[in-house]
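S.,

Sequence below, as promised.
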Amino acid sequence: MAAVLALPVLLVAGLLVLALVWVLTDDEEQDGTRLKKVPCAEALAFGGAELPVGAQDAACTVQSWLDTNYQADFRMPRAGFDAWLADTYPEAPEPGGPGTQACAHGSDYCFQLDVTDRPGTDAYYVNVTITRVNAETVRVRYSAFTT
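The prediction came back faster than expected:
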């Protein structure tokens, strides 16, 4: 008799838990990890940067547990990229020079910087990857993280 009476209570409790999980998980999953959407100003500031003038289609996320990893993906005018990079990371290596990495995803220029000593920056490292979209536009993939 007790089991029959408990069944409706368990059913309602289960539905409430499912609804709560659905509401609280407005995140996307990438490679089996949960990413939370965040404002791009927050994502770039973690690594000591700002969204450049003319940036379009910006999408930013954070993954945080033991370490924190902010990601930003945006397009910007090619003509403004060099100035943005020089203002933001003057210590960035020249394309093809020492300190650049073998770029993945068919990218044209990429590098990693240690920003642990940079004032006002919470990240330990910053990765920047640039791909030419066309003669006027580049796609920037930015990552600032603590490990």
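The two ends are 56 Å apart (CA to CA).

Coffee later?
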